[in-house]
Amino acid sequence: MRTFDYSRAASPAQAFSTASGQGQRFYLAGGTTLLDLVKLDVMQPEQLVDINHLALKQVESLPDGRLRIGALVSNTDLASHPLVQQRYPVLSEAILAGASTQLRNKATTAGNLLQRVR
């Protein structure tokens, strides 16, 4: 594994500005896929920006009925959230079918969306 810089973002704006710099920069949350790919030398980040301490773990109901899902909501929390189970039961079932309990507990919604194409 190659060396890389690590920083912990204090705000979403700081995370965005840090990750927007030159070179290979990636957000680190659950890290369930990212760290494996770094260990295998498939991904070679110059910097990892830790966003784990940001307030992005909420599932909110919006006035128009949609849900806003925070980037750091774990797959387990999303699948078991009452609003998701009520309004989007197929999503809940798909998440529960997609990985082991250990991975669901650590993996984040944003991490799933940002996964490298295999």
UniProtKB/TrEMBL annotation:
GO terms for molecular function: FAD binding; oxidoreductase activity. The keyword Flavoprotein applies. Residues 1-118 form the FAD-binding PCMH-type domain. InterPro entries: Diverse_Substr_Oxidored (IPR051312), FAD-bd_PCMH (IPR016166), FAD-bd_PCMH-like_sf (IPR036318), FAD-bd_PCMH_sub1 (IPR016167), FAD-bd_PCMH_sub2 (IPR016169), Mopterin_DH_FAD-bd (IPR002346). Pfam families: FAD_binding_5. Keywords: FAD, Flavoprotein. This is Oxidoreductase, molybdopterin-binding subunit. It comes from Pseudomonas syringae pv. actinidiae ICMP 18807.
